[in-house]
Design brief:
single chain; 4-stranded antiparallel β-sheet; 117 residues; 30% strand; alpha+beta; Heat Shock Protein 90
C-alpha cells in the first residue's frame, strides 16, 4: 500500500492525468507484490524525472531473492512461477513507457519502470 500511495503522490505532483496515475500505480503494485512474493521483499526508489518537455516518474525495484533464470519466458503473458495469472511482469511492462529488468540467479532482480507525461 505504501508503494502505491507514494507512486500516486509522485504522479500527481508531476501533473499526470487520472488514467496515467492509475497505470503507474497498477504497475507499481504488481512489481511490489512480485518483489515481496518471489524476491522475499526488497526496496523501491521513486524518482521524479524531467527531460524537457516531458516529466515522469521512475520506480526502481530491487530484491535479493533467487533471481529469474529466463527473463524472456518470465515476460510472456501467462507464465507464472507461482499460482498467479502470469500477467505481473508483462502487464507492468505494457503499462509503462520505459521498462528494464536485470536479474542474476541467486542474487536477485532489479526492475526499472518509467511513466512519462
Amino acid at each position: 500500500m505504501r508503494v502505491r500511495q507514494a507512486a500516486r503522490e509522485s504522479a500527481l505532483a508531476q501533473g499526470f492525468s487520472l488514467v496515467d496515475q492509475t497505470k503507474l500505480v497498477t504497475a507499481a503494485s504488481e512489481l511490489a507484490r512480485n518483489a515481496l512474493e518471489y524476491g522475499g521483499g526488497g526496496e523501491v526508489e521513486i524518482v521524479r524525472v524531467s527531460e524537457p518537455p516531458r516529466r515522469g516518474v521512475r520506480l526502481i525495484f530491487v530484491d535479493h531473492g533467487p533471481g529469474i533464470a529466463d527473463i524472456e519466458q518470465a515476460l510472456r503473458d501467462g507464465f507464472t512461477s507461482g499460482g498467479g495469472l502470469g500477467l505481473g511482469l508483462s502487464g507492468a511492462k505494457r503499462l509503462c513507457n520505459d521498462f528494464s529488468i536485470e536479474s542474476k540467479v541467486g542474487e536477485g532482480t532489479k526492475v526499472t519502470i518509467t511513466r512519462w507525461r
